[in-house]
Amino acid sequence: MKSLYVCYDGLLDPLGQSQVLPYLFELVKRGHTFTIISFEKEDHSAKEKQDLKRTLNDAGIQWVQLTFRFGKWALLKRIFSGIFAIRQSSRRFQPDIVHLRGFMATTLYMLSGVGLPHLYDFRGFALGEWTDIKKLKVGSLPYKLLKIIDQKAVRDAVGLVVLERAAEVLLRQTYPVSQVPLKVIRTSTNVTLYKPRTSLLSDDTSKSLRFVWLGGARSPYRPDLALKFIQNIMAHGVDCTIDFLNERDHFQIDSAASDLSFPREKMKVFKLEQSKIPQALEQYHAGLVFLDTSPWRRVCSPTKVGEYLAAGLPVIALNGIDTLTALGRDSKCALLVEGQELDSGFSSLRANNIVAFISQPGIGADCQLLARNEYSLEAAATTYSQLYQEIEGGLR
Prior knowledge:
- The protein has 16 helices and 13 strands.
- The chain is an alpha/beta fold.
- The strands form two sheets. Strands 3-2-1-4-5-6-7 form a seven-stranded parallel β-sheet, with helices on both faces. The chain has a six-stranded parallel β-sheet with strand order 10-9-8-11-12-13, sandwiched between helices.
- β2 (about 35-40), α2 (about 45-60) and β3 form a beta-alpha-beta unit.
- The longest helix is centred in the first third of the chain and has 22 residues, at about 70-95.
């Protein structure tokens, strides 16, 4: 099929690099063709855009670049430019299907009036999460309008994608889901980019535990709780450091560190190109995932989990996300902590157990095996391709 792929994220952003382009390149190998509409942050250089355009052209992918600027007026401009681009691209490229990544892309498409079959790559329950953080008020006119649009988009879709099995259950409970192909495809990673690892501490001459936080640090993510976690371990004489590999949220991280009087010599905050992430993760002992939960958010699939596991890193996470709870229950690759114990402080036994968790013999190899079985990009792309074939068969 020919697909018009609409993405509200930028292809040059970390999510675009790790969760959009790898899937599309794999689908191109399987015979599908794409035109992509994306919103690129204005601070990306012309050279970055030219280099990516060249790469996409080499893969046979057309790219329609729109600009993402911050601000309320800029939001209105994005809405109108997105609607216009969807209408224009639909006429110009004559796609068989429109692949919509997430709520904002779907909203723009529904407002465009283009009547082509659409695949709703649902990603997450944006409306519910926006009410959680008071971005929208339940019962307000904008909420009612957006809910009508979102419900119609689900009802009229010719195919659906959700990130976790629990998300499918919640979707069927709260949306009018039609009898169309629906796939569970969690956020995945290219596991072939990571070197094999076994035990993480046995051959390490350093006495410091090195933790890493990968990705965004704005709400609902909680860098402050990650720093509290490190402080609790250090309180028992364990030397620790934490690196935040983050593109745009340095102010939020620095503010959290200042509020907690966290020792700055024990942390670093820096941006790193996506292509360098696999090699960079080799130097750490565990990856952190701390985010607030809610009835809508608990069914999410944090991108960084697959990347940590693929690098051989056990995951330490705040309890409240279903997929992480399952990892902690069904594998030895994840350890969950409670917000209450972060506030009250760890006992010596708890701190020792955390160190022992990271020090498990063969933990690196176990994490990488789990990544290959559950978070493989190749397997995810195969499922996407199966979905495309099922949709194509239904459209004939």
